[in-house]
Amino acid sequence: MQTPEKFVDGNTPLHPIVPRLTLLAAACWCATSPALAQDGYAVANKPSQTITQTTNSYTAALPPATPTASAPTIQPPPPAISMEQLISRLKKTAAIGFFTKLALRSDALDLQQDIHQAVAQGAMPDQQQTLRQRFDGLVMKILALLDKDPPLASDIFHARESIWLSLIQTKETENGAATA
Amino acid sequence: MKKSMMIAGMIALFSPTIALAVTAEEDVATTIKLRGYDCPGRSVTTMEKQQHADGSTQIDATCSNGVRYRITVDANGHLMVRLR
């Protein structure tokens, strides 16, 4: 029987199959490791189903995600306010006088007409910023006049984006219907 | 004592309405200011209203600085302010 050779320090050398087994074990570990599998190391010859199952088993082993106390709370969107209701409240409020309301109505109608004209001429991308500034100015005027009716001022302030969108979308829809 | 408390209660009850109400003079002064004209103070000193047969309304108002304005509201409700 052949006895293995000994090194100078007295240790016996490893069997030639040992390095190959080590490499195989390393390859198997890489294939089952989700971090490495995602990067694509050592999984070229593995079927994708095996990787998915392995990843799923890792995901299942993780504890479920729970919101922590330090996480920022997401505020719910403000409730939708009816445009008709807002107009009706604006007409009825005693914080603004009759002629002031007429002046605001004239401004609003002029702005609406200009938006309609810009959409009809296809100049909305160029004029949108100017028109939006006019709209913001008009809203600011209304809010300043409603200092004696804070609930209505607050509702108009929160609904200003939807009012602007409705102004544009209505005109775009009308324009689209007219051209079609 | 009871009577004074009742009066105080009535004042408290109706005070928001009183605070909200805008007088015609204040209304006209605010309208002039909204159109970018100078009209110092909260209200105009004098105002004269005329109703025309075509449905339009005309108001001549004088601000506290003595400047006179004419407010015209046509039949469609379109409002214009002009310096007189």
Strands side by side in the biggest sheet of chain B:
1-2-3-4
Overall 3D form of chain B = extended
Number of beta strands of chain B: 4
Principal-axis shape of chain A equals: globular
Mean pLDDT of chain A: 71
Secondary structural class of chain A = mainly alpha
Discrete helix count of chain A? 7
- Helix share, percent of chain B: 25-40%
Profile the largest sheet of chain B. 4 strands, antiparallel
Oligomer: heterodimer
Strand % of chain B is: 25-35%
Mean pLDDT of chain B: 85
Can you tell me the residue ranges of chain A where pLDDT is under 50 for at least 5 consecutive residues?
Answer: 30-60
Q: Secondary-structure element sequence of chain A?
A: HHHHHHH
Which regions of chain B contain 5 or more consecutive residues with pLDDT less than 50?
none
β content of chain A, as a range? under 5%
Class by SSE composition of chain B: alpha+beta
Number of helices of chain B: 2
Query: Kindly, what is the distance between the CA atoms of the first and last residues of chain A, rounded to a whole number of angstroms?
Result: 98 Å
- The succession of helices and strands of chain B, N to C, reads HHEEEE
The profile of the biggest β sheet of chain A is: none
Notes on the protein architecture:
With 180 residues, chain A is mainly α. Chain A contains seven helices and no strands. Chain A has helices at 17-32, 34-39, 48-61, 83-92, 98-121, 124-145, 150-179. The radius of gyration of chain A is 36 Å and the shape is globular. In chain A, 9% of the residues are buried. By secondary structure, chain B is α+β, with helices and mostly antiparallel strands. Chain B is built from two helices and four strands; from the N terminus they run ααββββ. Chain B has helices at 2-20, 24-34; strands at residues 46-51, 57-62, 68-73, 79-83. The longest helix of chain B is centred in the first third of the chain and has 19 residues, at 2-20. The A-B interface holds A 93-100, 102-107, 109, 141, 145, 148-149 and B 17, 19-24, 26-28, 30-31, 34-35, 59, 71, 73, 77-79, 81.
